[in-house]
Design a protein that fits this description.
It is a single chain. This protein is 73% helix and 3% strand. It is mostly helical. The longest helix has 41 residues.
């Protein structure tokens, strides 16, 4: 009887860690989606992706906690705001860099991240802040398995966003144009696709996805200018899943999120924080192209 109870408790513990890991992995996966979208379309790596998530969380905080907008209005307002910021970032900062070495663009996005953190600290301060949401604090008790409403919203919100992205890229003209531009920019230009406008839309969508990630994770972890450093783990997730694969971004995020939770409980202290990088190194050694190998080789 005691063995059965101990076994049952262990199983419940594993389920609890699994739910928490999936929830955290969804956040990594959403940010990784932004990395992959921009890379597929422009062959640029935006290391400010996590800081865009941070900025989206602060805008949501302003709309809800300061301007007292209801959540159902603040949510689309935040997404629209970040879409505009993403498009302007591409137009004003990244488009003049077309044709420059990739290292220059990389350093530009790293510098952009520093600027965004400084601006956020100057406007909202460096004190951690909490986001008020209608579902914060609620829990579901499934025979001892405790699932917070926040975690459920993260998982369901990620699934809904992935479905919307699939439908967008599969059935809309703009989505098809983005796919065409990502596969062959010159051919897309010759058939009449406005490639530069498509680039702006990709950055807008990427910033919007980061905003969604920021809104979803804000009730779980407090908002502060340094929360964007989670983008480093999301970058690892994108590589693990395959840097050119949108499904791979989500899968990589889930793997890292789940492993982090189990490492935090079953391994010595400190292993949880570095588990993402251990997985990254292992993947680079075993399968450098990632789980979903969709990176395309250029023909010369």
């Amino acid at each position: 009887m005691q063995f059965a109870l101990a076994r049952g408790f262990h199983f419940l513990e594993v389920l609890q860690l699994l739910v928490s890991g999936i929830s955290q992995g969804c956040v990594y996966g959403l940010i990784a989606l932004g990395f992959v979208l921009i890379y597929k379309a422009t062959e640029m790596v935006n290391f400010a992706q996590g800081d865009l998530m941070m900025l989206g969380a602060f805008f949501a905080y302003s709309y809800i906690n300061i301007f007292e907008l209801p959540f159902y209005l603040a949510f689309p307002a935040t997404i629209l705001t970040m879409a505009i910021i993403g498009a302007l970032t591409e137009r004003l900062l990244l488009r003049p860099m077309i044709g420059e070495p990739h290292f220059s663009v990389l350093m530009l996005t790293i510098g952009l991240g520093f600027i965004l953190r400084a601006v956020a600290g100057a406007i909202w301060g460096n004190e951690p802040r909490s986001l008020s949401t209608p579902y914060a604090g609620g829990v579901i008790d499934l025979n001892g398995l405790i699932i917070g409403y926040e975690n459920m919203v993260i998982i369901l919100g990620t699934a809904a966003l992935c479905l919307l992205l699939y439908l967008f890229f599969r059935f809309t003209r703009l989505g098809l144009a983005m796919q065409a531009a990502s596969q062959n920019q010159l051919a897309a230009f010759y058939v009449g696709i406005p490639v530069k406008r498509v680039y702006s839309m990709v950055w807008a969508i990427s910033a919007s996805i980061s905003a969604v990630a920021g809104i979803l994770v804000a009730p779980v972890s407090l908002i502060d200018p340094l929360m964007g450093f989670v983008g480093i783990k999301a970058f690892a997730a994108a590589i693990v899943g395959g840097f050119g694969s949108l499904p791979g971004a989500i899968v990589g995020g889930l793997i890292i999120g789940i492993v982090e939770q189990f490492a935090g409980l079953y391994l010595p202290p400190g292993f949880s924080d570095v588990s993402a990088y251990v997985i990254l190194l292992a993947m680079l050694l075993i399968r450098p192209q990632g789980i979903f190998a969709s990176m395309q080789r250029k023909k010369v």
